[in-house]
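Bench notes, afternoon.
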Amino acid sequence: MIIYLKNKEIDRNLWDTCLKNSRCLKPYAYSWYLDIMAPGWEALIDDEYDSVFPVPGFEKFGIKYITTPIFLQQLGAFSPDKPAEKVIHEFIFYMPEFYRFIDLCVNYRVDNKDYKITERTNYVLHLNRDFNEIWNSYSSDCRRNITLASQNSINYTTDIKPKEIINLFIENTGKNIPGIKQRDYERLETLMNHCLFNRKGRIIGVRSGDGRLIFGIFLVEIPGSKTILFTANSSESREKRINYHAVNELIKENASTGIVLDFAGSSIPSVASFMQSFGSSKETYYRLYRNSLPWPLRMLK
């Protein structure tokens, strides 16, 4: 039987055990990730955590709603014993009616007339081949950019503070992206610190000759996968093609391990093209949208 649980009622140990046994290769649904990026999250569970469905529920002006936070790509249904692509329909059917607005990205398609369904694209690369074989699957432009980058002196460092890479992103990219709020960056910084302390992630970067950070990449690492969650570039790193070089080094480091390198997707064509250039596979996830707010608020949304 499916039941709804408030945040304090969720057993984190049973929750994460379900995720691990489901062979979940994305970090977003683990309790530690949700506690940081979607504080107060709630849940639907079935058969004593045999199947789970995280709900990033929030409340504003007395109205409860669901939305997918920034830096949390997708959630959905997870189960070690049942086909999650079937279980998700049951969870959606039992979604509490008090959520008057739902904008949620999930891992499997849902056919439900009450929701508007749109496709989103992610890119993943399965590192189950040797490096030479993977290299040959790169696009010619990708190989050329890596070769050009190799002509520069690129020295990687992990001595980078979360705030430093976030500030680099804000200065070069974030200031032009609407919708990312200060609290989102603060949660991201907390997530980075948690991952670094608990060995669930790394920050890798490159500094200029005078010590300035010019490139950084934040990886979230769980058993079976590494997710490139956050990348910060500068004009200098773009000119030197450091982003191509860095991803190639990650692939070289993990080739033949069987893990999945998750690029975390993008709706920006140039970024999506960059991800595809490494021979990655397209992976579809889905946005569910339902607006049952009363008329005046519905117009605002």
